[in-house]
Amino acid sequence: MYKKKPFFIVFEGVEGCGKSFQSKKLYQVLKKKNIHSILTRERGGTKSSELIRNLILRDYFSKDNKEKFNKYTDTLLYLAARNEHIINKIKPALLKKKIVICDRFIDSTIAYQVYGKKVDKNFIDTIHKKILQGIKPNIVFVLTVSKKSSRMRLKKRKTKNRYDNFAQSFYTKAQNSFIKIAKKRKNYFILNASSNDNALETKIFNITNKYLNIK
């Protein structure tokens, strides 16, 4: 029998892995079962965080390379957006004993900024100690995807952002980073999301159900 309690679920993975799709599917299933939950995302999630997100995206598409953000400026903007997101959305929802489903969280910062752009991890960890306020996911689903499936899904997207245009080598490096992070933790689940079928949705719900005991 499900007992109302705060619970934080995160979906991680590279572009085209289907994490946004799967996070929505899980949210819809919980909603049908009348379980109070919210669906949010990073970068973004609140009005202020979305403004920061747009600023980062505009910078990426700027034609003047000399004026582009330094990688530490870029990282600080992501962390600023996360701070707003935690204060204004994630923490209040958890205090109300809601289930929070988030499309990306801190592991994306580690995979992309640390492993991808070589930002100093200690720099990020120091800021996280202040802004996370002890909040950490109860479950993290790391969705992996084949190069072929990822490319096909990205081609179908009507609107693309900065991360949809990176070289395949960057995505491969990022995916390997997510897997490396996940293998060190018991509450992380690495799932292959290359196939377009309902089996993955069922698997994700079953894992969630083990933690929440939903009937």
Name the descriptors.
215 residues; alpha/beta; five-stranded parallel β-sheet
Textual characterization of the structure:
- This protein is an alpha/beta fold.
- It has 8 helices and 5 strands, in the order E-H-E-H-H-E-H-H-E-H-H-E-H.
- A 5-stranded parallel beta sheet has the order 2-3-1-4-5, sandwiched between helices.
- The longest helix is centred in the middle third of the chain and has 25 residues, at 71-95.
- The termini are close together.
- The mean pLDDT is 87.
| Helix-strand pattern | EHEHHEHHEHHEH
The main β sheet shows up as: 5 strands, parallel
**Class per helix and strand makeup:** alpha/beta
**Overall strand count:** 5
Radius of gyration, in Å, reads: 17 Å
Overall geometric form? globular
How large is the share of residues in beta strands? 5-15%
Uncertain segments are none
- Provide mean pLDDT, rounded: 87
Can you give me a brief rundown of this structure?
The protein has 215 residues and is α/β, with parallel strands linked by helices.
